[in-house]
């Protein structure tokens, strides 16, 4: 009987020593993933336990913990949702399965109370990670990012072709871009309507388009658009000089009684660029928090008045 008890104590002790605290409590694209805290045995006794706290605007916020394989799968699922985030994590991705090598992340940032930061298309990413041996845990110094208590309610949006589209993030997004190509004789125009995460992905693709890369002011404008969307704002931006011009408009919003924000009328960039020959360079940004203050008529009248006054008084901006 004594031998049996000793064996049982050894088995329990071994299981505790070769296990990690496992839980999920993170909010990803409008959906809350939450599990109770349990103890799970790892595949290998040499595996590390890993805790992650992460906050990426418009994508994810929360915390999760477990054996390194499980944490790797969860983090990989998150970063593959956005191309800009995936590119940030490329140094930590395994070639064989495209999963994140989380142990390498811990080795690069394993300082208590230190949060790694990186700029993304939707704002500043904050990432905290810590690795510890199985059976050991120190929660006193850990950093937490509190997710919402519940999942958000999906909303129905419209895509670029006015077809119904369900967005789990709880809001919709539209984006327009126009710029002059080549010698300025051709105006290129594009319109997008989608769920916010897809829209931010599209912004990143546009930002890395070779033609747009050759227009630094336009590339810079695109870098700021995702942050505007993440905060449910609207922004019109017009930049012009005597050789080029571009226009961007983004609006991210919660639809009200199935009423959706519509696209704006594209300005004549060639005409604006030619006008700038006399008055220099200008950049106009119009921010708002509601779609009503960004009507087509108001923006068009405001721009025309601005340019007219510049011409009359020969003002250089």
UniProtKB/TrEMBL annotation:
Originating species: Strongyloides venezuelensis (Threadworm)
Signal peptide: 1-18
Protein name according to UniProt: Transmembrane protein
Keyword terms, alphabetized: Membrane, Signal, Transmembrane, Transmembrane helix
Transmembrane segments: 298-315
């Amino acid at each position: 009987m004594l031998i049996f008890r000793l064996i049982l104590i050894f088995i329990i002790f071994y299981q505790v020593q070769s296990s990690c605290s496992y839980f999920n409590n993170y909010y990803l694209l409008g959906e809350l993933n939450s599990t109770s805290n349990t103890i799970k045995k790892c595949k290998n006794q040499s595996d590390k336990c890993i805790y992650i706290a992460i906050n990426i605007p418009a994508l994810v916020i929360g915390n999760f913990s477990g054996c390194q394989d499980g944490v790797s799968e969860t983090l990989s699922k998150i970063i593959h949702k956005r191309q800009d985030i995936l590119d940030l994590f490329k140094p930590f991705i395994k070639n064989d399965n495209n999963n994140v090598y989380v142990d390498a992340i811990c080795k690069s940032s394993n300082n208590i109370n230190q949060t790694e930061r990186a700029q993304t298309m939707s704002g500043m990413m904050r990432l905290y990670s810590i690795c510890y041996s199985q059976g050991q845990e120190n929660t006193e110094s850990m950093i937490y990012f509190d997710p919402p208590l519940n999942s958000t309610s999906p909303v129905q949006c419209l895509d670029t072709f006015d077809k119904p589209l369900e967005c789990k993030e709880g809001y919709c997004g539209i984006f327009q871009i126009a710029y002059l190509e080549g010698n300025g004789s051709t105006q290129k125009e594009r319109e997008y309507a989608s769920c916010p995460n897809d829209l931010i992905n599209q912004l990143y693709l546009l930002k890395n388009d070779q033609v747009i890369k050759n227009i630094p002011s336009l590339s810079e404008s695109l870098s700021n658009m995702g942050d505007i969307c993440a905060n449910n704002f609207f922004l019109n931006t017009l930049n012009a000089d005597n050789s080029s011009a571009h226009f961007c408009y983004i609006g991210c919003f919660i639809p009200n009684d199935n009423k959706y924000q519509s696209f704006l009328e594209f300005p004549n960039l060639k005409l604006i660029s030619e006008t700038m020959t006399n008055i220099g360079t200008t950049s106009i940004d119009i921010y708002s928090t509601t779609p009503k203050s960004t009507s087509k008529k108001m923006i068009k009248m405001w721009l025309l008045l601005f340019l007219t006054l510049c011409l009359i008084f020969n003002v250089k901006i």
